[in-house]
Amino acid sequence: MLWEAIKLAMQSIRRNALRSILTLLGIVIGVGAVIAMVTIGTGTSRKVQENLAKLGSNMLIVRPGQRTFGPEGTSESRAFQEKDVAVLRANLTGVRALAPSAQRGGRVVFGALNYDTTVTGTDSDYFAVQQWNLSSGRVFSETEERAGASVCIIGSTIVRELFDPVDPVGERLRLGNFACEVVGVLESKGQSAFGSDQDSTVVLPLRTFHRRLAGNTRISSINISVAESDDIARVQSDVEVILRELRRIAPGQDDDFTVRDMTQIVNALSSTSTLLTGLLGAVAAVSLLVGGIGIM
Questions:
Q1: What values do phi and psi take at 136, rounded to 5?
Q2: 94-147 pLDDT per residue, tens
Q3: Is residue 246 over pLDDT 80?
Q4: In a 3-state reduction of DSSP, which class is residue 204?
């Protein structure tokens, strides 16, 4: 009985070869789309949570100009200065930590080895804002920050590329035309939410960065960690009010700075992935419908 049924099925497939192929193709595409939809949905949900953790919880990033991300292009006159940071620190409430930062590319040299990396000038609050612990060594002291001392903290990529297997703490590496002592090593963070290697970094005290590398006092961003998520909107509003007054922006004029809630960025990524999942679901439904019609 079973053999007869198989023979009839094979004969039917041979008589309707094109229809059978299209039906099979529709079912394969439909099932594949369903699998992809489930995989992308669960994978994206996990990735969004990882990205939020990498960005830091309850994070606000303040930048000069209207451009939030990308190469620095803000004019010197509108860049933030240390006085802006001091006023924000003195007047904001509900803030866990606040850190200014400035960045540029640079080549670090140790012995006969060199490596191109990102150099960040900031202060010790930066590590609290970024929720970034040290695997060895220490952060900058207040004395080193005020004096612009030649000290640095490096990421694990720099350790691997230049020092391994030597313990870098206490060693001196050359950066541009000056040498700095490595006082700490950051724990590995891997890629950022935007695909860059966070561990490829050298961190200097802000004044050291300004005096020894940048040749100016620009601050390209102010990173703020809000203590409670319920206070993010209020703190963001307070930042805007304080900076508008500091920068003498008249009522009715547009802000010449941007305050971005990083949670919104992650939510936007989540919305995009949800849309993609929905499109795959539609493809799966159509493909399975075509396959079902073919079988009938």
A1: -160, 160
A2: 999 999 999 999 999 999 999 999 999 999 999 999 989 999 999 999 999 999
A3: yes
A4: strand
Provide the 3-class DSSP secondary structure of residue 137: strand
Amino acid (1-letter code) at residue 164: D
Residue 200, classed as helix, strand or coil, is coil
Both 189 and 170 in one domain: the answer is yes
142 sits in which H/E element: helix 142-147
Verify that 128 and 42 share a domain, yes or no: no
- Do 138 and 185 fall within a single domain? yes
Q: Is 161 within 8 Å of 113 (Cβ atoms)?
A: yes
Separation CA 131–CA 128 (nearest Å): 5
Give the domain extent around 237. Answer: 58-263
* Residues 101, 174 within the same domain: yes
Across the range 64-68, mean pLDDT stands at 66
Strand-strand pairing, 113-122 and 201-205 = parallel
Q: What pTM value is reported for the model?
A: 0.72
**270 shares a domain with 259:** no
Task: Please give the tally of structural domains in the chain.
Answer: 2
Nearest to 62 by CA among 240, 206, 186, 184: 240
pLDDT band at 4 (very low <50, low <70, confident <90, very high): low
Span 4-9, mean pLDDT?
A: 61
Task: Specify whether 104 is located in the same domain as 41.
Answer: no
User: Between residues 41 and 235, which one has the greater pLDDT?
Assistant: 235
Please tell me the total number of residues recorded for the chain in this structure: 296
**Do 11 and 152 share a domain, yes or no?**
no
Is 227 found in the same domain as 107? Answer: yes
Residue 260, SS3 per DSSP: strand
**Number of Cβ atoms within 10 Å of the Cβ of 232:** 20
- Residue 68, pLDDT above cutoff 80: no
